Amino acid sequence: MVEMQMDPRAVPPYPPAANALERAGISPALAVGYLGLLIFMIGDGVESAYLSRFLVDRGNGVEQVALLFTAYGLSASVAAWFSGALSDLIGPRRVMIAGLAIWIAAQLGFLLLGVGANSYAGMLLFYAVRGLAYPLFAFGFLVWITRVTVRERLSSAAGWFWFAFTGGLPTLGALVASMLLPVVGPLATLWVALGVVIAGGATALLGTAQTPLGGPSAEAAHEHPIATLLTSLTLAYTRPRVAVAAAVRAINTASQFGFLLFLPIYFTQTLGFDLTFWLRLVTVIFTTNIFCNLAFGLIGDRMGWRRTVAICGGVGTAISTLAMYYVPTFFGPDGAPWVIAAGAFYGATLAGYVPLTALTPWLAPERRGAAMSLLNLGAGVSVWLGPAVVGLLLAPIGAVGVMWTFALLHLLSAGLAMTLTTSDAR
Description:
This protein is an all-alpha fold. 77% of the residues lie in helices and 0% in strands. It has helices at residues 20-24, 31-45, 51-57, 62-90, 92-115, 120-130, 133-148, 154-184, 186-207, 225-238, 240-252, 254-270, 275-303, 305-331, 336-350, 356-359, 368-417. Helix 2 runs antiparallel to helix 9 and helix 5 runs antiparallel to helix 7 (133-148). Mean pLDDT is 87; it is low at 1-14.
């Protein structure tokens, strides 16, 4: 392993920036791509806060819905894992095109042959296939960002990426759902989501058509395609701290995806909140999150990536996870302002993990695509890890046990993050 002789606490001076976008951490060549990503993720996030309740109301059991979400998450983890390596192999732009095409085809199958035909097998198949789509589109774009952005602004650029990502999934997606559901109903809302995704994908791809570094990487040109795709596996052994970073990323949003599965049911059926309040709470959580993504991106570039992830992300989210259970359980529907405050706290602390996106490529600077593949694998794992925790533990230990499990996982991630001290990890 090549050690880079730099104090990980040091913050080097910023190079001169040509304009306000660059000073904020956005490459001007990718600015429209960020907008397209936001719109795409709004469409992807429309269903996030109500789909589990909708499917249960149509006669599916909670365990069946948990399996559906877990299958989706498993597919997402596979796509997230290969997104970086595929970006090295064929270029991030083509990876984004593939993600958009899969999303459109799978959503049509899910709506027509799954939900529309009231076929659980159809829903399971097409929803699992659709899980491949958004990681290819979003994380392909993220690899593009790491190629174009200078290191000194990479945490800020990551903050903008997660601002767009979580601004859509589930923040504005949930808000759109809360406005559409009373007017057109849950099924028609899913059709609207399809149109929004198409609009976002077209915006991102057309707006970045002239952006450099969107093709295959130089390293992949000298390797067999299979070797390029499997590089992230060998990297887990040769640079084990990259694998640790992936584990931290898996824990990062596991609680989020677990919450979206069972908290709508817990809040409405056990605590007595109505579904509209839950949708607005999700909007508050992730509105806070998207702005804190920007803040922690900037903080990470100054305070240090590793410390920000461990303290603000790991420890902070452990505390806020417990607040998400105890505050609504104690106050109930009459304590709505306190519940809103707890949700905002949770959304803020989730953003503390943002600098992990900047840290990971510099744990293996010569193979950034492969490092991002492992990190994206962690992101994909979180999509099924959260629902799997709920599916396995909700019945035997109840909601309180599930929430404590997530809190302990976040504390574990804080300890793991503190080990990420090798190479230029700051």
